[in-house]
Design a protein that fits this description.
four-stranded mixed sheet, mainly beta, 5% helix, 2 helices, elongated
Length: 221
């Protein structure tokens, strides 16, 4: 029997961006995790240490400020992040030998507004810089009376980096703020033959009965 010893980042076969076109998919492996979902590392550190304040999948997005992207399996995540599950490992752009810039804008028929800008280049004496800005205003496919956008996210990053013959040292500043509505109940009628019909007053995949008022009424029995 031949046993392979794959390198980190080459052992996990995980479909990313399946539930979000700008963030990693939450992978549930049936074991409890302390991050509320998929572990996300940025420059070797978790993007957040307290997922009750902000979820990792909200404070990190796949933007033009990322230079390297990889996926770590359960064993690698346990060793590098001290957590259970599959993790995403990313490295910020720390500067380039020549000045480079990237700009992207995304929209759709629902009114999505997403801008992503990145620039990097050299300074003097082996000093380099990079800066990026990611803004996402996504109304989703559900109408809501309490918010125009179901996902409002801003991420700004700036890096100053010094490269040596045997290493590098740098400082990064990152500002990330995200708010949104993640719970979406869209009722429909499911039949035994696999077909579905809409409930009166609800468009399938478009209407929800939770976000319209922003309030949940409970009954004390």
């Amino acid at each position: 029997m031949k046993v392979a010893n794959p390198k980190a980042g080459e052992t996990a076969n995980v479909m990313l961006n399946a539930s979000s076109d700008s963030g990693p998919r939450v992978v549930n492996i049936g074991l409890p995790a302390s991050v509320g979902g998929t572990v996300i590392l940025e420059n070797g550190l978790p993007v957040t240490y307290d997922y009750m304040g902000q979820m990792p999948t909200l404070l990190w997005r796949q933007d033009n400020g990322i230079a390297k992207f990889g996926v770590l399996n359960i064993t690698e995540t346990a060793l590098l992040a001290s957590d259970v599950g599959v993790s995403v490992s990313t490295w910020t752009n720390r500067g380039t030998d020549k000045t480079k810039g990237t700009v992207s804008f995304t929209t759709n028929s629902f009114g999505l507004l997403r801008g992503d800008v990145g620039i990097s280049g050299p300074l003097k004496n082996n000093w380099f810089y990079s800066a990026s800005a990611f803004i996402n205003m996504d109304p989703g496919t559900f109408r809501s009376n309490i918010s125009t956008f179901l996902d409002k996210t801003q991420i700004y990053k700036g890096v100053i980096n010094k490269k040596y013959n045997r290493g590098q040292i740098g400082v990064q500043y990152k500002y990330a703020y995200s708010e949104g509505i993640s719970t979406k109940q869209s009722p429909y009628i499911y039949h035994q033959d696999g077909t579905v019909d809409k409930v009166d007053g609800f468009k399938i995949g478009r209407d929800s009965y939770l976000e319209q008022s922003g309030m949940i009424h409970t009954i004390d029995r």
